[in-house]
Design brief:
The chain is α/β, with parallel strands linked by helices and about 150 residues long. The chain has helices at about 10-20, 40-50, 90, 145-150; strands spanning about 1-10, 30-35, 65-70, 80, 105-110, 125-130, 135-140. Helices cover about 20% and strands about 25% of the residues.
């Protein structure tokens, strides 16, 4: 795995990054979005979903926990998950998130709640607020993403 760092000036830059990521995703991929409250995890997820064809604004799945999107609403099935309200890995097992990987892209906010259950092929994106109110994104790029990430 390799780390890559990007600076994103504003929400528009985050949206554009979502578009570049969406151009590289495949069914079975996991994009794990990590960062504090208000860091921009949902903004990036919305950028990915928008680039995949979602015309309406994606709601934050904080309360629903799991929010699926299917074709033709998006060009490939996506399951957007927000684990913020769960206390830890023992509470995520009943969600059976692994089953979504057979036929969908999985976007997971608060992946730390999965503990060791986070898939090793996950593209981990840590988002932090920079001193100038922009965002610093650090990508932990697994082998499955190395070539694709170089195109982002």
């Amino acid at each position: 795995m390799a780390d890559r760092e990007l600076h994103l000036d504003d929400a528009r830059a985050m949206d554009e990054l979502g578009g570049r990521i969406a151009a590289q995703v495949r069914i079975g991929d996991v994009i794990a979005l990590d960062g504090g409250l208000g860091a921009g995890k949902t903004t990036l997820a919305r950028g990915i979903l928008k680039a995949l064809g979602l015309e309406s604004e994606a709601p934050s799945p904080s309360f629903a926990i799991v929010q699926p999107y299917d074709v033709p609403e998006v060009r490939l099935p996506v399951t957007h998950v927000d684990l913020y309200r769960l206390d830890g890995p023992e509470h995520t097992a009943e969600l059976a998130l692994g089953e979504y990987l057979a036929d969908s892209l999985l976007i997971v906010e608060w992946p730390d709640r999965l503990g060791a259950r986070l898939w090793p092929h996950s593209l981990r994106l840590h988002i932090a607020v920079d001193t100038d109110n922009g965002r610093r994104l650090t990508a932990d790029v697994p082998d499955a993403w190395t070539e694709r990430w170089s195109q982002i």
